């Protein structure tokens, strides 16, 4: 799952001309997705939103506990 999230992120950031953010954002997403899956045991989703002037990246999981 982290691989799919990284690939999706890379495509979206490149389409917005944000290549300079790729390495840091990819590491961030990989860590967040891996932690969500490892600690909740359930699925996780990647949410990418454009909040000018920068993208907003978040990960959601199904665990009801914070």
From TrEMBL:
SUPFAM superfamilies in alphabetical order: ATPase domain of HSP90 chaperone/DNA topoisomerase II/histidine kinase
GO molecular-function terms, A-Z: ATP binding
Swiss-Prot/TrEMBL keywords: ATP-binding, Nucleotide-binding
ATP-binding keyword on record: yes
Gene3D superfamilies: Histidine kinase-like ATPase, C-terminal domain (3.30.565.10)
Keyword field contains ATP-binding: yes
Protein name according to UniProt: ATP-binding protein
Species whose genome carries this gene: Streptomyces alkaliphilus
